[in-house]
Specification:
The protein has 246 residues and is α+β, with helices and mostly antiparallel strands. The chain is built from 6 helices and 16 strands. It has a 6-stranded antiparallel β-sheet. Helix 1 runs parallel beside helix 4. The longest helix is centred in the first third of the chain and has 18 residues. The relative contact order is 0.11.
């Protein structure tokens, strides 16, 4: 198991360098005829010799999981989990609209089995799959990269309707009063938008009404991200002809 894992980690490192133009995989197996395995997320490439000895099947729809077993006796070899969680993170396929994060579960083989070395080599077929992902897709090895969500929701105030990222809609608490909007998370103030002169930072005016931002000390990385998304509010305000930046 340790021997195979070292090989797999090495291939992942090679895939990372290849994606940056820093290295090429000169493995002689790359010249072997490849067989394609079509999934809803990517076309996987394996060597013909692998395909002749290993079968695969969908074992879960959510998350989509593809399991590989030895044809000889259905010994489990490994499984790939798309947009779910597994033991080992392989990487992320960066898509135009959505990303696909791929994890792997590697089966523990019986070292006392007569087929141990043979099945260990079958598990090594994962190397071809990784190489194919690197060659055919924008694949980032060893990183789980979430799809960027640029959608927003509206917050109506007495002065202007502002837009804030939709990813916070069910998390952040928004309180609107006559002269401000208060954003908080689990009782912790994150920031306020204030529609009158105050000690905050002036970001601009809307129809002659000043808009200030008051920021608070926060406790978590998530709350820091909420504060950083003040920029989303500002970017959308700048699209309104009635708004003037400071």
């Amino acid at each position: 198991m340790k021997k195979l894992l070292a090989v797999i980690l090495a291939v992942i490192c090679i895939a990372t360098l290849s994606a940056c133009g820093g290295a090429k995989n000169d493995d002689s197996s790359s010249s072997e005829q490849k067989v394609e395995i079509t999934t809803p997320f990517a076309v996987l490439k394996v060597a013909k010799s692998f395909d002749e000895n290993v079968s695969y099947s969908e074992t879960s729809k959510d998350p989509y999981t593809l399991s590989f077993v030895a044809k000889e006796d259905d010994t489990e070899l490994f499984s790939l989990i798309f947009n779910g969680k597994g033991k080992t993170l392989l990487g992320t396929i960066i898509g135009e609209k959505e990303n696909t994060v791929i994890y792997m579960n590697m089966a523990d083989l019986d070292a006392k089995s007569d087929n141990y070395e043979k099945y260990l080599s079958y598990q090594g077929g994962l190397n071809d799959i990784l190489n194919g992902l690197t060659e055919d897709y924008n694949f980032v090895a060893k990183q789980a990269i979430a799809t960027e969500d640029n959608s927003t929701f509206d917050i109506k105030t007495p002065v202007v309707t502002i837009k804030y990222p939709n990813k916070w809609k069910e998390i952040v608490k928004v309180e609107v009063t006559d002269d401000r909007v208060k954003f908080s998370d689990e009782g912790t103030p994150v920031f306020d938008l204030v529609f009158k002169k105050c000690d905050g930072n002036l970001i601009g005016t809307y129809k002659d009404t000043p808009i200030y931002v008051v920021e608070y000390n926060v406790k978590t990385d998530e709350q820091i991200a909420m504060k950083e998304d003040i920029n989303v509010i500002l970017q959308n305000l700048q699209k309104d002809s009635d708004f003037s930046a400071k």
